[in-house]
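Hey, resending since the last one bounced:
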Amino acid sequence: MSVVEQVQQVSNSPILWLLCGITVVLSAVQAVLYMRQCGKITKEAGIDPHIPKEAFRVGFISAIGPALGVFIVMVGLMASIGGPMAWLRLSIIGAAATELSAANIGAEACGVALGSEQYTLVCLAVSWFAMALNGAGWLLFTGVATPSLETLRNKVSGGDMKWLVVLSGACSLGIFGYLNSGEILKGMGNTIAVLAGAVSMVILVKTVCRKIPRLMEYSLGIAMIIGMICSLGYDQLFH
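The structure tokens again:
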């Protein structure tokens, strides 16, 4: 049996599917419990039931685009680290680029390329460990820092809710700007996708969605599709 066959056999073994499936099921149950709790809080707070339903639909539709991107990366990861682990990591973390980078770091630590013929069971274990260690850091930070975030937020805002809205908006712009900057550095095709998506979003929100309010919940998905189409068109014309 070749090295590649050994890696595929171990990384897709039934026991691994079972163990990873337990964690994925727990995550799904947790999501359901959160939704139930939100429903109870909505009733206790006297909020119009239509509002959370509308928010859920908007969130669901907006998540379709990013979920497709995660799914594509998961298919690629399945060929290298196995279906169960790829399913597990991207179900509970969802940061496709980060998980792929962690798997690559594990392979590079062994001096081989991810998914190559030199990628042995030891390299597979190192990749898994790198992915787990990467996720553990996030969990540790959120567990330690989250209880203090509310106090920190109040101190920063000084009790001024308007300033807090501005601060939250600035933080969001900074986060997404940082993520987009990494994509822009990859080449002109990615740059066009970012710019076309941003311009499309502004046009949709400022013009089209004002005339057709129900289109607002689809605006993010539409802008992402427009960005991808423009990027694909550039690649087809100039490559």
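The two ends are 41 Å apart (CA to CA).

Sorry for the duplicate.
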